[in-house]
Amino acid sequence: MPLDLVVGAQWGDEGKGRIVDRLAAGADLVARWGGGDNAGHSVTVGDQVYRLHLIPSGILQPHTMCLLGAGMVIHPGRLVEEIRQLQAAGVNVSPARLKLSVAAHILTPAHLALDAAQEAGRGGGELGTTRRGIGPAYTDKAARRGLRAGAMRSPEAFSAQVRDSVARGVASLSQAADRPVPDPDSSGQEYGQHAEFLRPYLSDTGRLADEALTQGKLLLGEGAQGTLLDLDHGTYPYVTSSCTTTAGALAGLGIGAQHLRQVIGVVKAFQTRVGAGPFPTELQGEIAGRLRGAGDRPWDEFGTTTGRPRRIGWLDGVLLRYARRINGLSALALTKLDILSGLDPLCLCVEYRRQAGDEAPLGLADLEQVEPSYLTLPGWQSDVQHARTWEDLPAPARDFVLEVERQAGVPVWLISVGPERQQLIERAPR
């Protein structure tokens, strides 16, 4: 006891990595519970920007143990690459600090090829996937024909299993004309080498997590993507293939609800999403470009994993209340407040016109039909990146934060005013 969770309260890309990095300073373990290398967390430490896709952001705090939970799908080659990159940067990523669940599923080259073929086959109806093979890997998991990480304990047998799995996937690609297909034999050989490297990292992470919590240690759960991309509760079908919410965390980590202490929802001071799907508050033109940035800074609104420019909109209070309900949010971490500096006026969606009640309509895909109603707030001109206390913020910035809090129905606890570790304001105790 206890378990604290960090979840994305929007469509992902909210800045969870830098919040986890901060909270991990007081944690004993940090764990990812779902998704794969379709996630991307950027953390700035001094002059170094770390771009993480599989390994929890807590790895940058030297005292933590990090877990890759059973709910994840793992591309072994990308995990090996990420470990080596961090080690080259001086980060300790030894098997004593990083544990991979034996129950996590393995993503193969066939999954990548299937993802690309399926997305291309949708024509104008593309979902906007990252083409990282995540959906097909979860499909194999649900169909009970997937490969689990525990098979890497025997690299030779694992190599044969990968070969057979890729051969099966290639057979389903035979109708896709002019598309390269992976070779089963070379895939099996490559994955056998990855298994040799990763075998020392394998562990029963659910048992480790439960033992740590029973001993009174603090476990921090690190979410990937966001609530509105959840397979069950997001803007289906424009969603990811895993459970991104509080309920998914417990299943993906393999621990019970009795340990849960609080859920921190991370929300950007405006709204973004990557890929297709409804976006009620989406902006075009000068304001969208101003909020997105030119792409010359690591924190500009371009996908960490894909590099795609993100769609931009005003913060949506209706969807924020929905995220609060779905996750049981205890508090918010508000990021990128500094990006709003210089914009006047600011808008915040508080309800949808022609929509009964104050929450999202039944079936989030119906968001295409709603019309946002905005509250207009005065902006501020001063740069807030040097603010370190609530009182340091200009009055209009404080008013904006308080309005976000009113719309969400939970307190705003942390406020990010820049990418650096120290550019966080703690407004109130947890």
- Major sheet: size, sense and barrel closure? 10 strands, mixed
Anisotropy-based shape: globular
Count of alpha and pi helical runs: 11
Elements, N to C (H/E):
EHEEEEEHEEHHHHEHEHEEHEEHEEEHEE
The helicity comes to 25-40%
Taken as a percent bin, the fraction of beta residues is 15-25%
Structural class: alpha/beta
CATH H-tier superfamily of the largest domain: Adenylosuccinate Synthetase, subunit A, domain 1
Q: C-alpha Rg, in Å?
A: 21 Å
Q: What is the class of the largest domain in the CATH system?
A: Alpha Beta
Description of the molecule:
The protein has 430 residues and is an alpha/beta fold. The protein has 2 domains: 3-92 and 204-426, 3-Layer(aba) Sandwich (Adenylosuccinate Synthetase, Chain A, domain 1); 105-201, Adenylosuccinate Synthetase, subunit A, domain 2 (Orthogonal Bundle). It is built from 11 helices and 19 strands. It has helices at 16-23, 76-88, 109-121, 134-142, 155-172, 184-198, 205-214, 246-253, 286-292, 317-327, 395-408; strands at residues 3-8, 29-32, 41-45, 48-52, 65-68, 73-74, 98-101, 105-106, 202-203, 219-222, 260-268, 271-273, 311-313, 315-316, 331-335, 346-353, 371-377, 412-416, 424-426. It has a 10-stranded mixed beta sheet with strand order 9-7-5-2-10-1-11-15-18-19, sandwiched between helices. Strand 18 and strand 19 form a beta hairpin. The longest helix is centred in the middle third of the chain and has 18 residues, at 155-172. The chain is globular and about 65 Å long. The model has no long low-confidence stretch (mean pLDDT 91).
